[in-house]
Amino acid sequence: MRPSPAIRRLLPVLTIGALVFAACGSDDSSSDSTDAPAETEAAAATDAPAGTDAPAATEAAAPDESCAATIDDGVLTVATGNPAFYPYVLDDTPESGEGFESAVAYAVAAQMGYDADSVVWVRTGFDEAIQPGAKSFDMNLQQFSIDDDRKKSIDMSLPYYTSNQAIVALDGSPAEGATSTDDLKDVKFGAQVGTTSLAFITDVIQPNQDPFVYDDNVAAKAALEANQIDAAVFDLPTALFVSGVEIEGSSVTGQFPADAGGTTDDFGFVLEKDAALTSCVDAAITALVNSGDLDAITTEWMSDFTGAPVISVD
Fold it and tell me: CATH number of the domain at 165-255, please?
């Protein structure tokens, strides 16, 4: 099973983004869960913009007082990575609304009362964005894991994405075609020591053979590439990157439900510490969760876009 045409088409962008992705966090930790606040009244949900051109303006209610507390009056400044890459932003063009985080940003903006024409994109580095101090953006999304240590110097929103685990394998692997964990019992797995992915293999997949354990993901990927193991498990964003860029002839052969195994990582928006806008972003995310719109965006750009089947847990 080869990487999808969309992945092959975007390899140059992905390659440029390799170092950026490495900084975005990995399987090494999972964030503390954050309880969503009670349902909050917000502007009516609108569809995320689509198409390769600039997204059409969407109807949005005028921002309330907290949502109007932006660095430039009447404008919502949203930051992403430089470059921004698949599947979060397609063709490094967040203005198109194509890609998971681009679509999420426009949906949140609409809930906050900003139409597409009032959204301005800027670029920042990952480490730059999480440093203390004044920001050049109102909110920033580039796969920031919600973390209590980070919250000491920045605000982080409620989660807009909860990662699931996925399998990466070479063409012809016995992991190909699996639709349930029962189909994976004889697969020879590997993962990095101390990761949520290793715990997922032992606790959820429960293969007949103990998984091979490696000091880091580099060693796990090398073992997979050398056919020393049949498959490796990563969180889905890492799996997409590994298969799309790092290991030729590999693909994401399956993904698991996000609630399987309790081994997840939550992504949130980054805002300036104690920003008045944070409560408005949280309210917008809550409204999108309650309406089902956030789930629909996640399905379109993360779950379905991979082309990998969802593997049931038996």
Answer: 3.40.190.10
Where in the chain is CATH 3.40.190.10? 31-162+267-303, 165-255
The CATH code belonging to domain 31-162+267-303 is 3.40.190.10
The H or E element that residue 104 is part of is: helix 100-112
Q: Kindly report, residue by residue over 50-102, the tens digit of the pLDDT.
A: 433 444 433 444 556 779 999 999 999 999 999 998 789 999 999 999 999 99
- Residue type for position 298: T
Is 256 in contact with 23 (CB distance < 8 Å)?
Answer: no
- Of 19, 32, 306, nearest to 162 by C-alpha is 32
3-state secondary structure of 35: coil
Q: Cβ contacts of residue 274 below 8 Å, gap of 6+?
A: 155
Smallest Cα–Cα separation from 273: which of 128, 91, 130? 130
Q: How far apart are CA 185 and CA 187, in angstroms?
A: 6
Q: Residues 142-147: what's their mean pLDDT?
A: 88
Q: How far is CA 93 from the centre of its chain?
A: 17
How does pLDDT run across 204-215, given as a tens digit for each residue? 999 999 999 999
Tokens of 77: 């400044």
Per-residue confidence at 233, pLDDT binned at 50, 70, 90? very high
183 burial (CB, 10 Å; 0-12 / 13-18 / 19+) is middle
Give, rounded to a whole angstrom, the gap between the first and last alpha carbons of the chain: 24
Report d(CA 28, CA 87) in Å as an integer: 21
Measured between alpha carbons, how far is 291 from 244 in angstroms, rounded to an integer? Answer: 33
Task: Give SS3 for 184.
Answer: helix
